[in-house]
Design brief:
Chain lengths: ~110, ~110
């Protein structure tokens, strides 16, 4: 059974550009969440999608957005990139029930220069 | 918001037992996860506790006390490959799947 798949794994962008990251959840998982991990702030929740609807949003500016498609795949977008957006972006998926385990993908390493 | 505390660093010897503690605010608690993360890799699920008590999985065990807002991860028969960061994460509020993470405990296993 394939795990959570994220693309691209590594990318470098310039300040002011925008970036789109993609996530394919584990087959059958309809909940997809995104997290940002930095050395200074640790792992922080960005947003969660379920059935193509954003259910929760973390404390991030509006430059961070996302969406989920009917096949549960998800994308997140960061516009007007800043140096501080350099981070590991992790996607996680789980089954529909609240008590289910949350599994993480290998992440997308974003460097903003 | 939720405040999760765990030690920043721990050192232990190969073959020994180590306990990593985690404390959290109890209001709205709806489950606690432990993840292992090796440098440069994604977090790997270790355990999930929602009821009080001890959950055992091979060399790893996790304990939860909801009334005290306290959990620990117990690692037995430590191996060098156990050197990693261990993340405590709490899910708050029924209906939400968002996790709030502690800053992680970096465990160094020495020969």
């Amino acid at each position: 059974k394939a795990g959570v798949t994220q693309t691209p794994r590594y990318l470098i962008k310039t300040r002011g550009q925008q970036v789109t990251l993609s996530c394919s959840p584990i087959s059958g998982h309809r909940s997809v969440s995104w997290y940002q991990q930095t050395p200074g702030q640790g792992l922080q929740f960005l947003f969660e999608y379920f059935s193509e609807t954003q259910r929760n949003k973390g404390n991030f500016p509006g430059r961070f957005s996302g969406r989920q498609f009917s096949n549960s795949r998800s994308e997140m977008n960061v516009s007007t990139l800043e140096l501080g957006d350099s981070a590991l972006y992790l996607c996680a998926s789980s089954l529909a029930g609240i008590g289910n385990t949350i599994y993480f993908g290998e992440g997308s390493w974003l460097t903003v220069v | 918001g939720q405040n999760i505390d765990q030690p920043t660093e721990m050192t232990a010897t190969e073959g020994a037992i180590v306990q990593i503690n985690c404390t959290y605010q109890t209001s709205g608690f709806n489950g606690l996860f432990w993840y292992q993360q090796h440098a440069g890799e994604a977090p790997t699920f270790l355990s999930y506790n929602v009821l009080d008590g001890l959950e055992e999985k091979g060399r790893f065990s996790s304990f939860l006390s909801r009334s005290k807002g306290y959990s620990y991860l117990l690692l037995k028969e430590l191996q060098m490959k156990d050197s990693a960061s261990y993340l405590c994460a709490v899910r708050m509020d029924t209906g939400r799947r968002a996790l709030t993470f502690g800053s992680g405990t970096r465990l160094q296993v020495q020969p």
